[in-house]
Amino acid sequence: MAKLYFAYGSNLNKRQMTRRCPDARPLSLLHLENWKLVFRGVADIVPSPGDFVSGGVWVISDNDERALDIYEGYRGDGSGMYRKVGVPIEPFKMRGETFTELMFYVMNSDGIMPPSEGYLASIREGFKDFGLRLKPLNDAVEASWDDKNPSHVERRRHARKGRPTLAVRPSEKKKAKVTVTNSEPTPAQRATWQRAMTVHSND
């Protein structure tokens, strides 16, 4: 039976989802109200009145859901890395099926840690796939540095993945870097500047 699945992290990436969940079909972008994106090394969302999470909705099959359960580390007894949440929605009909719920995964952890560069790049690609603005994503990454407080769960995962380089603060990338050098210009550079000055002085 088909199901509506809300993705907000790496599963927005259509290239990755094609491999992971071959039956999945992208449906639309969605702003989920009263939730907020956070990072615990990987993406998670938490209830937050007045906020919203930008993401995308997929129509997935039972096989897709099983593949996602494995990828997300979901366990039926609730002891996995993620657990499932179902949010009621207005009845929605498509291709002879009626959907009344939106499913997504949330983490069983409360530590805060910035994502790795590679993981964040896959999410950025997914945001572009769904036509989502990058500002909410950048804000969440910035907040993960401000509030950084990893639990043993995040530390273990980071070590298990080989301690990949963490994503740079978005605010740091905006700072211009100026390099001052005392090296003398080469003869070719000096000749080019002299020609340019001569042309300019004759205008």
Could you explain the architecture of this structure?
- This protein is α+β, with helices and mostly antiparallel strands and 203 residues long.
- The protein has a single domain (3-170), classed as Roll (Hypothetical upf0131 protein ytfp).
- 35% of the residues lie in helices and 31% in strands.
- It is built from 7 helices and 5 strands.
- It has a 5-stranded mixed β-sheet with strand order 2-3-1-5-4.
- Strand 4 (82-94) and strand 5 form a beta hairpin.
- The radius of gyration is 23 Å and the shape is globular.
- Mean pLDDT is 89; it is low at 196-203.
Essential attributes:
203 residues, alpha+beta, Hypothetical upf0131 protein ytfp, five-stranded mixed beta sheet, 7 helices, globular, disordered C terminus
Count of all domains: 1
Low-confidence stretches: 196-203
Q: What helical percentage do the residues reach?
A: 25-40%
Order of helices and strands: EHEEHEEHHHHH
User: DSSP strand (E) fraction?
Assistant: 25-35%
Structural class: alpha+beta
The biggest sheet, with number of strands, parallel, antiparallel or mixed sense and barrel status, is: 5 strands, mixed
Total helical elements = 7
Number of strands: 5
Q: CATH homologous superfamily - what is it?
A: Gamma-glutamyl cyclotransferase-like
